[in-house]
Write a structure and sequence with these properties.
The chain is α/β, with parallel strands linked by helices and about 375 residues long. It has 9 helices and 19 strands. A 7-stranded mixed β-sheet has the order 3-2-1-4-5-7-6, sandwiched between helices. Strands 12-11-10-13-16-18-17 form a 7-stranded mixed β-sheet, sandwiched between helices. A 3-stranded antiparallel β-sheet has the order 14-15-19, with no helix packed on it. The structure holds S-adenosylmethionine (SAM).
């Protein structure tokens, strides 16, 4: 796929990356392994990678590995050993652990790996309590560890909060009464328990901004649960909506929400990474709550900038994108390279930006991609979202 860099997963036994620890002597047994959220053990031993992030999925596939976006595709008791790498989202990690337990044969080993900075010690403690087992530490270096549990007939891992995973979203259309709709969330999907304050900020302005003549085709980029695209579909019953996200869990979640709300005829969800060419084009409106990643004190704007760079290919000349962001995030310069930028509203720590695509952009006149000069990093203070 153009635009994505493929790096074959290679690791030596003394590789200091936390994700390489399962390759330490005596950790893995002979034979195939199933590995969640990384692919180094599978590259070394064979087996199946579970990778919901599209760029890493494509990289594993290009390196010739067997890879699936979700463990739901793997039958029960398929593997003798499974490695789960701890993620930032504790709920997503315990969802992985639950699936790992399901696909393990009795007597098989569950290896749980992660760096101290992500909280592997407390995550292991919680898992040990759930399983009623004492973990064996099988590797402990590079400020990370791998622990071993053995599948027995005892209890399985459980999610931290098994309870209600739905939230209500209110909309106030220009015509008609305000109404609410309910969305389901999933572990690891953005805005896990409630509507994100930034998304709400955008939704409050959406009906008034679009007005009485909604575009026939709307796209929601980085859709998460699908909240923005679904709101647009509910507000404007004549419009078709495409939703896109790089995380297969978000794609699954948005699809489930669309089906539950009976919007399947007009809404479609695609698994797409911002560095891939858009699978469709000529939309009349794009809705975006851009992704960003925190790296210590810094914020990595790379994913947002990649998404901005693709905007031109998604929307028609003269069409608009509506974007919400933390007020301090420096999105103005990269976005101004694409079109006319206007700040519609700034309040409660957020800003709402409207971008009108030029007929012929600065970029297509030979400039570098939006934000290329900044390298995509900022240490501007941002409110936690
Ligand atoms: C801030 S969340 C917004 C989610 C949703 N639109 C909302 O308002 O709740 C950003 C979304 O972008 C997705 N994302 C992150 N990196 C991406 C990429 N490279 N390409 C496409 N989507 C990406 C994330 O999975 C996440 O769902």
């Amino acid at each position: 796929m153009p635009g994505l860099d493929y790096v074959a997963p290679v690791a030596t036994r003394r590789d200091r990356r936390p994700e390489a620890l399962p390759l330490d002597p005596g950790v893995l047994r002979e034979g195939a392994v199933c590995e969640f959220q990384s692919d180094l053990a599978v590259a070394a031993h064979g087996g199946t990678v579970v990778q919901p992030w599209r760029d890493r999925f494509l990289a594993a596939e290009a390196a010739g590995l067997e890879v699936v976006p979700s463990a739901h595709e793997i039958p029960d008791t398929e593997f003798d050993q499974v490695v789960v790498h701890l993620q930032k989202s504790r709920a997503a990690s315990f969802e992985d652990l639950r699936e790992a337990w399901r696909i393990l044969r009795p007597g098989g080993q569950l290896l749980f790996a992660g760096p101290n900075t992500l909280g592997i010690v407390s995550a292991v403690k919680r898992l040990a309590a759930q399983l009623g087992q004492s973990p064996v530490i099988v590797s402990n270096r590079a400020r990370a560890r791998v622990v071993r549990f053995v599948k027995d007939a005892g209890p399985a891992p459980t999610l931290e909060e098994e309870g209600n995973r739905t939230f209500a979203t209110a909309l106030d259309p220009i015509h008609g009464d305000p109404f609410e709709f309910e969305l389901e969330t999933r572990p690891g999907v953005f805005s896990a328990r409630k509507l994100d304050a930034g998304s709400q900020f955008l939704l409050e302005a959406l009906p008034g901004h679009v007005g009485h003549k909604p575009p026939a085709r709307i796209v929601d980029l980085g859709c998460g649960t699908g909240v923005l695209g679904i709101a647009a579909a509910l507000l404007w019953p004549e419009s078709q909506v495409l939703l896109a996200d790089a995380d297969a869990r978000a794609v699954e979640c948005a699809r489930a929400n669309i089906e539950r709300l009976g919007l399947g005829e007009r809404c479609r969800v695609v698994w797409w990474d911002a560095r891939e060419p858009p699978p469709d084009s000529r939309f009349g409106l794009a809705l975006v709550n851009p992704p960003f990643h925190r790296r210590g004190m810094d914020v990595d704007l790379g994913p947002a900038l990649a998404l901005f760079a693709s905007l031109e290919s998604w929307i028609k000349p003269g069409a608009r994108a509506l974007l919400v962001a933390n007020r301090t995030l420096p999105y103005e310069r990269p976005l101004s390279e694409i079109g006319e930028l206007e700040t519609l509203r700034a309040a409660r720590g957020y800003k709402l930006l409207s971008l009108k695509r030029r007929a012929r952009s600065a970029r297509s006149r030979g400039r570098r991609s939006p934000g290329a000069r900044s390298g995509g990093r900022t240490n501007a203070p941002i409110r936690s979202r």
